[in-house]
Amino acid sequence: MHHRRLKEPGWTRGIVISGVGSAATLVVLLIVAVTKFAKGAWVPLVVVPGIIVVFVAIHREYARVSKALDVDPSEKRPRRVDHTVVVLVGRVHLGVLQALDYAQSLRPDHLVALYISDDDDDREAMQAQWREFDIEVPLDIKHSSYRELTGPVLEYLDGLDERWHSDTVTVVVPEVVEGRWYEHLLHNQSALFLKGGLLTRKGTVVTSVPYHVDHDDGEGGTAPQGP
Could you read off the pLDDT of 138-157 as tens digits, one per residue? Predict the structure, then answer.
């Protein structure tokens, strides 16, 4: 097939040589497969075709995605995007305030903060803290019996789509970043699972806003809790 496609000088001779080599290889393969099958020859007979099938499937997947991403220059037209930003918040701390400032700097069409609450006392305490800090961003509170994040957040975003019909919803996640890798393992695990759950939601962008905790100065000596 290579020689027939390119038809380089001497391509007919190349076809003959390749054909003889392929035939000889096939004969050897059949002899070994029959005489040594029970002694382990079955392994390459099974494994090699399996590897080939996997590689062909991977190639087809890459080709499918590449075709889906292709765009013609005539199709590139600027359009207005209706943008909603949702900031996930826990208790009010420096990381949350920084995330709210970042969200406001995006100047979205709609901006709201979302808090996941597990009981009435928790909800009232959060509302009181929001008023105490006099935060201008509207606060929505959604109930979740076990403070599970992904399901309630996805339900809330579906409700926003019905309310505002936004083209793009950006979910801003405040994240605490510690200086030492083992300390970082103690934070942001819920945010990690949440980002994984939001990844497959169409029209949704997830943005992490890191707050770096510095142990060397007086600010942030005790790591604030994440959302």
Answer: 999 999 877 788 899 999 99
pLDDT score, position 48: 86
Residue 134: φ, ψ to 5°: 55, 50
Contact 173, 150 (CB under 8 A): no
Is the distance from CB of 170 to CB of 205 less than 8 angstroms? yes
Q: In the chain, where are the structural domains located?
A: 2-69, 83-212
Sign for the pseudo-dihedral over CA of 132, 138, 144, 148 = negative
Whole-structure pTM value: 0.70
Q: What are the distances in angstroms from CA 98 to CA 65, 91, 189?
A: 37, 13, 20
Pairing mode of beta strands 139-143, 168-177: unpaired
Q: Is 3.40.50.620 the CATH classification of the domain at 83-212?
A: yes
Q: How is residue 63 written in tokens?
A: 């080709």
Which residue from 212, 126, 207 is spatially nearest to 173, judged by alpha carbons? Answer: 207
pLDDT, one tens digit per residue, over 16-38 is 999 999 999 989 888 888 888 77
Between strands 110-117 and 83-88, the pairing is: parallel
What is the residue whose two structure tokens read 């959060």?
Answer: 126
- Within 8 A by CB and 6+ apart from 167, the residues are 81, 82, 83, 203
User: Tokens for 104?
Assistant: 């406001």
Give the span between the Cα atoms of 92 and 137, in whole angstroms: 13
84/146 Cα distance (integer angstroms): 27
Q: Kindly state the greatest CA–CA separation across the chain.
A: 87
